[in-house]
From TrEMBL:
It comes from Stratiformator vulcanicus. This is LarA-like N-terminal domain-containing protein. InterPro entries: LarA-like, LarA-like_C, LarA-like_N. Residues 30-187 form the LarA-like N-terminal domain. It comes from the Bacteria. One of its GO terms (molecular function) is lactate racemase activity. Pfam families: Lar_N.
Length: 415
């Protein structure tokens, strides 16, 4: 398949359990209250295997184990969906896991947050390489104060805002308040998706790690790097900084597909876990670098019928535009949530705004249940997904046509 790099070894289920037993020191958690922090269902991860293995290894030693979904600003997950995410059956919920609280982060409820510090103007200027200069309060879910250790369990992929996901990103934006979240998403947009994705040392990573160091509760992290079918290439344990560093090195080797030349047409197929444009935008982020100037990227998502449950109203107001469209009219847009502005620019990709005219480098087209009228309103192209024969895009790379059957996680980059 064109969207998968050369095969790399993966761990068996037994090897994963053995690794956890050997590398996660159970005695370091003895008698502790532990909050396990995991991704939502928009990330490929073998969480049922990992959660069961970790609970079997640590559970008896802990005084308390709860789970929080690092939602950022994604939609909350119902309890039944969290159980499915973790592989918890109805019987297990009533028996084995009856004392485990399953929690959603609540970024939009001020009473659910606590302020643990401030990034000053001088700090944000230094961290952002002078792109932004302002005081930013650092707020996080107040439940972190109820535990002795915060244990992150999450994958690492190339990422459009921070360079590579994982590590302290599970706190910011995963458990973050809106101020810091909006600040560094817009910082990432200023750098641009192409400039930041798949890069380890980025201004946003520096911000996230600086904020993570402010957390008063002990932080530990299990990172892992997965194949598109959720098989694990490698696992790492340590502080969030240590575990992320090693996982990002592995992700760089297995998650980046290099192509010799750009493509004029890309069919980027959104998997079912991307159920709104807010997350299906990853189908553009990971492929923008290999689309030719003036080319078209089609986000093929026949299952998708919503822009964003949380942010849809704002997106319909502002539309999808390149970064310079907003910068050239900053007084008009500066009071919108910066995280939404950043999402808009990442989906629309690079471009210019001169003399009141926007010119985007790539045509981005939605092939989903979202209507042609709505697509026009939000400045995206429209295709009826029923008119698209996916197989007709296959095996045509020498013609300048690329098919990516499960888009959103493997970064495509020119050689």
């Amino acid at each position: 398949m064109s969207d998968v790099p050369p095969t790399a070894p993966v761990l068996t289920s037994d090897a994963v359990r053995t690794w956890i037993s050997a590398n996660v020191p159970a005695d370091d958690f003895a008698g502790q209250r532990v909050l396990l922090i995991v991704p939502d269902a928009t990330r490929t991860a073998p969480l049922p295997l990992l959660f069961d293995a970790l609970h079997s290894h640590l559970g008896a030693k802990l005084s308390k184990l709860d789970v929080m979904i690092a939602l950022g600003t994604h939609r909350p997950m119902p309890q039944d969906d969290i159980c499915r995410l973790l592989g918890i059956s109805e019987t297990e919920r009533a028996e084995r896991y009856r004392d485990v609280e399953l929690l959603n982060h609540e970024w939009d409820r001020p009473e659910a947050l606590t302020e643990i510090g401030t990034l000053t103007e001088e700090q944000t200027a230094a961290l952002s390489d002078e792109r932004l200069r302002l005081d930013v309060p650092v707020k996080i879910n107040r439940r972190i104060l109820d535990y002795d250790t915060l244990l992150v369990l999450g994958p690492v992929f190339p990422h459009e805002v921070v360079g590579f996901s994982g590590g302290n990103k599970y706190f910011f934006p995963g458990l973050s308040g809106p101020e810091l979240l909006n600040f560094f998403h817009w910082l990432g947009a200023l750098v641009t998706n192409v400039g930041i994705i798949g890069v380890k040392d980025t201004p946003v990573r520096r911000v996230v790690d600086r904020a993570g160091a402010m957390i008063p509760t002990r932080r530990r992290c299990i990172t892992f790097v997965v194949r598109s079918d959720a098989a694990i290439h490698g696992m790492f344990y340590g502080t969030p900084e240590e575990a992320w560093h090693d996982a990002a090195d592995l992700s760089e080797r297995v998650h980046i597909v290099r192509k010799p030349k750009p493509f004029h047409t890309v069919l980027s197929c959104a998997p079912p876990m991307y159920d709104e444009v807010w997350v299906a935008g990853k189908c553009m982020y990971k492929l923008e670098p290999v689309v030719a100037d003036g080319g078209e990227l089609i986000i093929y998502a026949p299952h998708l019928n919503e822009i964003s449950q949380v942010h849809g109203r704002v997106i319909e107001e502002i539309g999808y535009h390149c970064r310079d469209y907003f910068l050239g009219q900053w007084e008009k847009f500066k009071d919108y949530p910066w995280g939404v502005l950043a999402h808009s620019t990442h989906v629309r990709g690079g471009g210019t705004f001169e003399n009141g005219e926007e010119r985007c480098r790539v045509q981005v087209t939605l092939a989903s249940q979202i209507s042609p009228e709505t697509c026009a309103k939000i400045n995206l192209g429209y295709r009826d997904p029923a008119t698209i024969d996916v197989e007709s895009f296959a095996n045509r790379e020498n013609e300048g046509v690329l098919l990516v059957r499960k888009a959103g996680e493997y970064l495509h980059r020119l050689e």
